[in-house]
Amino acid sequence: MRIARFSIDGNVAFGVVEGDSPPGSTDGLVLNIIKGIPFAEFETTGTRVPLNQVRLLPPVLPSKVIGIGRNYAEHAAELGNEVPATPVAFLKPSTSVIGDGDGIAYPSFSQEVHYEAELAVVIGRLCRDVPHERVKDVILGFTCANDVTARDIQRSDNQWSRAKGFDTSCPLGPWVETGIDLATAANLTLQCTVNGQQRQLGSTSDMVRSVEDLIVHVSEAMTLLPGDVILTGTPAGVGPLNVGDEVAVSIEGIGTLTNKVITRG
After folding, report:
1. Would you call 22 helix, strand, or coil by DSSP?
2. Which of 108, 155, 160, 181 sits in a 20 to 30 Å window from 32, CA-based?
3. Of 14, 34, 56, which one is at a domain's C-terminal end?
4. Which residue range or ranges hold the Rv2993c-like N-terminal domain (predicted)?
5. Which domain, by its residues, includes 15?
6. What is the pLDDT of residue 173?
7. What 3-state class would DSSP assign to 219?
8. Per-residue pLDDT for 55 more than 70?
9. Around Cβ 124, how many Cβ atoms within 10 Å?
10. pLDDT tens, 99-124?
11. Strand order in the sheet with 149-150
12. Cα(262)–Cα(155) distance, rounded to whole angstroms?
């Protein structure tokens, strides 16, 4: 099931995405509006709205986004790093989150902004100290993410808050796919294109640590709330973005997240 969050006529709602469409198109897709929110059992209203008549919003509003660094060996190597003995976790604030079609505002303090295509896990229930055998019970689903990074600031600062937490640095979307189990999530193809040219192509099978390992690790330290997001790392091939570029993250079985880089106003 694909669950989207959207705005129409000034109202915000969740809906189940129904139908099929050609790649890169929303033609034929409709939203069956949900009663309430999708973090518990819910019903659909039967009221359907064409997807191309609404504005897609970030599929969730997380209280926090937890990123995981250097979870693909080839990506760690391309930046001159070793795979760490334990996962490197960092936070992106809620103000960094944008949705499909929103602009990535190039930060004024950076001269080197990079794309990073990632599989994102959306938490579906309040949880802490999650054991491996219960991980599947706390996941709502998966979505596409772009962990946009000011690489020069990441190198110069002693920690990554500015480099990875600036406004608009966390595109998520276009929706949450709830029909992917953990075994499937462990072998998904993901890619990133910039202006239609492929820049990243990888598989979640290359992750150093699994989705289960990451949720166990993160939940040892902090309580996760419904709608919180864990970014699982990026494969090799990261590179620069410039104002005017259109960057798209596509993940097998989920969809495509597309954003344009704009000048910060």
Report:
1. coil
2. 181
3. 56
4. 1-59
5. 2-56
6. 98
7. helix
8. yes
9. 21
10. 999 999 999 999 999 999 999 999 99
11. 149-150, 113-115, 239-241
12. 23
Is the CB of residue 52 less than 8 Å from the CB of residue 26? yes
**Structure-block tokens of residue 8:** 């129409």
CB 115 within 8 A of CB 241: yes
Average pLDDT over residues 130-134: 97
- At 129, the amino acid letter reads D
Q: How many domains does the chain have?
A: 2
Terminal CA-to-CA distance of the chain, rounded, Å? Answer: 37
pLDDT digits (tens, 9 = 90+) for 13-29: 999 999 987 776 778 89
Q: Are residues 168 and 194 in the same domain?
A: yes
* 218/131 same-domain check: yes
Residues 154 and 177 grouped into a single domain: yes
By the 8 A CB rule, do 241 and 149 touch? no
Average pLDDT over residues 132-153: 98
In angstroms, the CA 100 to CA 102 distance is: 6
